[in-house]
Specification:
Elements lengths: L11 E6 L5 H14 L6 E4 L8 H14 L4 E6 L5 H14 L3 E5 L21 H11 L3 E6 L10 H13 L4 E6 L3 H13 L6 E5 L5 H11 L5 H7 L6 H21 L4 E5 L5 H9 L5 H10 L1
Parallel strand pairs: 1-2, 1-8, 2-3, 3-4, 4-5, 5-6, 6-7, 7-8
The structure holds flavin-adenine dinucleotide.
Flavin-adenine dinucleotide (FAD) binds next to β3, β4, α5 and β6.
GO molecular function, one term: methylenetetrahydrofolate reductase (NADH) activity
Keywords: Amino-acid biosynthesis, FAD, Flavoprotein, Methionine biosynthesis, NAD, Oxidoreductase
Pathway: One-carbon metabolism; tetrahydrofolate interconversion; Amino-acid biosynthesis; L-methionine biosynthesis via de novo pathway
Length: 300
């Protein structure tokens, strides 16, 4: 595997979006989708709000992806705060909308990340149970989460890998990781995952950094370590938007190139519903847009 042919298919890519919460954000999302579509991602996914609070926005966005774009679209789904019957109703709504791929998650406790999780009596207690439930309901493609730096609630990495194994054994097709910046740690994690007998693809989650200060707040809630080298790379760039964007792109490109050298060939990009950094990362990896390639072919 090498990134030297310029072919978009040199690596697998998927894009993650979140459902818009306002008209302005809605415009932003669909502008971004129009701009990123030509990269011909293997699939895109749309997140699902905590506690089931945003089923409707997720369903609306996913339906539009399925009806108005050529993109294979996965819906995230959480089972927090719901009985199994309620979760099945939600699955049914998405299935009727045409969803064939779920990113199956437990979700955070209603008080937010950090508040002890209480499974709903009569509900799925964790994502492994949800995967098993989905497998009984239909022939879905199923992705799950993975945490190279461990989930904040996990006792230790071993407990985390144990849950990942349960999800894989229940029928998950792949795991998408929480975003991370420490590739050495990721490689050690992957070795442990494989030693535990987990064979499904573990797809690194890559976060092009829009704003390091904001990202730090978010990262501390989800357990991602922000290495000191990022402070150094972004030092003095708070008011220099273009230079900051260039550093963000360089950091993500270097991370992906390094992971490719370590044998990884699929990447899940957190878009934050914005296209410029994501497109610049893919361009600087030397990849060509499928749409651009098609257009060049047509002109030849
Ligand atoms: C790729 C990705 C996409 C995501 N998308 C969404 C989304 O769309 N909507 C959303 O709300 N959230 C989303 N999340 C966040 C996720 O819901 C939270 O991290 C949640 O706290 C755990 O859900 P999970 O499916 O990862 O849990 P699980 O896989 O069930 O568990 C995660 C880890 O937590 C530990 N754990 C689980 N339950 C307990 C417990 N009761 N006590 C102690 N340890 C426990 C286990 O060791 C396990 O390794 C996403 C996360 C990732 C990585």
């Amino acid at each position: 595997m090498a990134l030297n042919t310029g072919d978009r298919r040199d690596i697998g890519i998927s894009f993650e979006f979140f459902p818009p919460k306002s008209e302005e954000m809605e415009g932003q999302l669909w502008k971004t989708v129009a701009e990123l579509q030509d990269w011909d991602p293997d699939f895109v996914s749309v997140t699902y709000g905590a506690g089931g609070t945003t089923k409707a926005p997720t369903l609306t966005a996913v339906t539009r992806f399925l009806n108005e774009t050529p993109l294979a679209t996965a819906s995230h789904l959480t089972c927090v705060g719901a009985t199994k019957e309620e979760t099945h109703q939600v699955i049914d709504h998405f299935r009727k909308a045409g969803v064939k791929h779920f990113v199956a998650l437990r979700g955070d406790a209603p008080g937010g990340a950090g508040v002890p999780y209480q499974p709903h009596p009569g509900g799925y207690a964790n994502a492994a149970e949800l995967v098993a439930g989905l497998r009984e309901i239909g022939d879905f493609e199923i992705s799950v989460s993975a945490y190279p730096e461990k989930h904040p609630e996990s006792r230790d990495v071993a407990a985390d890998i144990d849950m990942l194994k349960r999800k894989a054994d229940s029928g998950a097709d792949r795991a998408l990781t929480q975003f991370f910046f420490d590739n050495d740690n990721f490689e050690r994690y992957l070795e442990k995952v494989r030693a535990a007998g987990v064979k499904i693809p573990i797809v690194p989650g890559i976060m092009p950094i829009q704003n390091l200060t904001q990202l730090k707040r978010f990262a501390s809630a989800c357990g991602t370590v922000i290495p000191a080298f990022l402070d150094e790379r972004f030092a003095g760039l708070d008011d220099k938007v273009e230079e900051r964007a260039k550093v963000s792109v360089d950091v993500a490109v270097e991370q992906i190139e390094d992971l490719v050298r370590r044998g990884l060939d699929e990447f899940h990009l957190y878009t934050m519903n914005r296209s410029p950094l994501v497109s610049a990362v893919l361009t600087n990896l030397g990849l060509r847009r499928e749409g651009a390639k098609r257009a060049a072919g047509a002109a030849a």
